Amino acid sequence: MIEQVKGTQNIYENDAEKFLYVRNKFFKIFKKSGYSYLQTPHLEYSELFEKSIGENSEIVSKQMYQFNDKGGRSLVLRPEGTSSIVRYHSQNQKELTNQYSYFGQMFRYENPQKNRYREFTQGGIEIIGTIDTFSDFQIINDSIRFLNELSLKFSLEINTIGSIEDRKNYTKDLYSYFKLNEDQLSDDSKNKLELNTLRILDSNNAIDIPIINNAPDISSYINEGSIKKYDLLKTTMTQNDIAFKENSRLVRGLDYYNDLTFEFVNDDGLVLGGGGRYDRIADILNIGTFNGVGVAFGIERIMNSISIKIKPPEIYIIGVNLEKITTYCKLLENNDLNYFKPPRLSKINTQYKNAKNLDVKYVINTDEDTIKDLVNNTSIEFNIEVLIDN
Ligand code: AMP
User: Fold this and answer.
1) How far apart are CA 24 and CA 308, in angstroms?
2) Residues with CB under 6 A from ligand 1
3) Beta bridge mates, 44
């Protein structure tokens, strides 16, 4: 038997209903909020992520699905969306400030488990061009609109990580601190020490927690300009009744972030989505001087945090006469009615059983020209008005 690739998913039945539900809400809310959908390729040159996310980041150093194509080009299956949107912006919209949305599969070589997959779906929004605190506010406010539309319970955690220079100074001191306490760190954190010091702060390993709790805090490294911007955003959020918690350990692992970082966390502590400001990404990629802010949501994590009521189908059409059944199908379609049908003209009893299993209300028997009401257990001569009025 050919097995399924580890960490990938087949989304079907109830999960598929949820997936489509979340996707529809995503497009509804972000279209309403003024974001234009941009679909970028799943394949990009490795260089894009090596430069934007950073060669030492966990994603680039360990998690990319990277390969040489038959022409010898080094390609990756995209691990995230922002870099590609930025690439598009620089190629086609450099002079403008745009609001983008994206939705699709991402690929990361991670240890697969519930809520962590190797192929997963992200939906995200970005504002790119010349942006300010109002742009930061919009990304957060519109994200909340989306999460509320799904009736999700969540808390918002925010932080400022200052300029890239501030983060360098902080990382230097953090490194010295962890180096001094290296023998007390978990093996995983020890491995992050040299190239990925900041990521140690994300560790949930009980061995690391006391060391992390006593580590230097980024808040004392932030320059005045960044603090001012952060204060303005906090005031604006408070004025607009947006509840948030400050979390100075929220540094996020991608090199391109500066100033604002934030995450939406559900009641079980699961991170549903996160994002931040990226003022230097265009500079890092050497493609211009624009800046941006954005958020990405983990769609499977959102699916796993909601329950939805699926409306059962109402009408099932059965019959063994090809000409009759197709005529009835056409009639229902012309009246814009939703209906289900057997995949082929199997025995009438089998078709009827399938209809009952689906819990439909009406079965149209096209051989007998009748409608059977399965809820009231009555049968009448076929009459389209009964279905339309329902
Ligand atoms: P990130 O790009 O790492 O900030 O991820 C943004 C969001 O995508 C996270 O908050 C998660 O909800 C989701 N996510 C990231 N990695 C995975 C994964 N391997 N499996 C499922 N969801 C993920």
Assistant:
1) 13
2) 80, 108, 110, 115-117, 120, 122, 271-274, 296, 298, 300-301
3) 76
Closest to 164 in 3D by CA, of 223, 244, 81, 224:
223
Q: List alpha helices for 159-296, DSSP H.
A: 164-180, 187-193, 209-213, 224-239, 281-285
**CA 338–ligand 1 middle distance (angstroms):** 36
Question: The pTM is what?
Answer: 0.93
Per-residue pLDDT of the chain (390 residues; tens, 9 = 90+): 999 999 999 999 999 999 999 999 999 999 999 999 999 999 999 999 999 998 888 899 889 999 999 999 999 999 999 999 999 999 998 899 999 999 999 999 999 999 999 999 999 999 999 999 999 999 999 999 999 999 999 999 999 999 989 999 999 999 999 999 999 999 999 998 998 898 898 888 999 999 999 999 999 999 999 999 999 999 999 999 999 999 998 988 777 899 999 999 999 999 999 999 999 899 999 999 899 999 999 999 999 999 998 887 899 999 999 999 999 999 999 999 999 999 999 999 999 999 999 999 999 999 999 999 999 999 999 999 999 987
